[in-house]
Design brief:
39% of the residues lie in helices and 26% in strands. It is α/β, with parallel strands linked by helices. The longest helix has 35 residues, at 114-148.
Length: 234
């Protein structure tokens, strides 16, 4: 594979040539445009294609710029459902997380080397969020399953990049801990969504009808997750 960086008046992009490709593809990822083309593909034709797709490229580049991850740690506060709580970071004898209604204190052991500090800090925070998620989702599943007349099995709190939850045929439910960083009404939608799968283990019209009956804000919640996923990161 070979690559070539090209500058234009409005943006730059990289052309990646590969002998395995059979067609040209444009990809906007992490604020960068990449053109993937077959080995030997005419560069003039690539430039012409990018020019033709210029408005599409600019639109997607602007969308990425608007989706900049918030610097929660630098801001010394963390989102927790419908509120934010203060964040205090300390060094101490052992690594532990302490919290009350308004503040969370993360103590990282003084034995942790500086180069590992950030990783340990994030691990502690993720574990704390997972604990909060298990308690919250257990309560909300109990509430909604009684309304929907279904019965769930085990609840699993996961760490996934591409899904918010799941429902297995065994009635096991899974929820992403990052939903603790979203508004409660959005996280509640995921609960109803997964519980509805206990009656319809698919995404058929009957499934969506059932979700809509119990959660009229379902479409708004889906849109919120799609537009704000970048906010749900430490």
């Amino acid at each position: 594979m070979s690559a070539l960086k090209i500058e234009t008046e409005q943006f730059s992009y990289t052309v990646h040539y590969s002998s395995r490709r059979r067609s040209v593809a444009l990809q906007v990822k992490q604020g960068q445009l990449t053109v993937r083309a077959p080995l030997g593909y005419n560069l003039a034709d690539i430039k012409k294609l990018v020019q033709q797709k210029q408005q599409w490229v600019i639109k997607h580049l602007q969308q990425v710029k608007q989706q900049i991850r918030p610097q929660w740690l630098a801001g010394q506060q963390l989102p927790l459902l419908d509120s934010t709580i203060g964040l205090t970071r300390l060094r101490g004898a052992k690594s532990v997380v302490l919290h009350d209604e308004h503040n969370i204190t993360v103590i990282v052991s003084s034995r942790v080397q500086p180069q590992r500090y950030q990783k340990v800090l994030l691990t502690l925070l993720q574990k704390w969020y997972q604990e909060q998620a298990f308690s919250w989702f257990a309560e909300r599943v109990f509430y909604w399953q009684n309304k929907m007349n279904v019965r769930s099995g085990n609840i699993i709190i996961g760490n996934w990049r591409t899904k918010w939850g799941y429902c297995k045929s065994t009635a096991e439910l899974g929820f992403n801990w990052r939903l603790m960083m979203a508004p409660a009404w959005v996280a509640d939608y995921v609960v109803v969504h997964e519980l509805a799968h206990l009656k319809h283990l698919n995404h058929s019209p009957r499934f969506w009808q059932l979700v809509g009956v119990y959660y009229p804000q379902a479409e708004q919640a889906k849109a919120w997750l799609k537009q704000n996923q970048h906010l749900l990161e430490l």
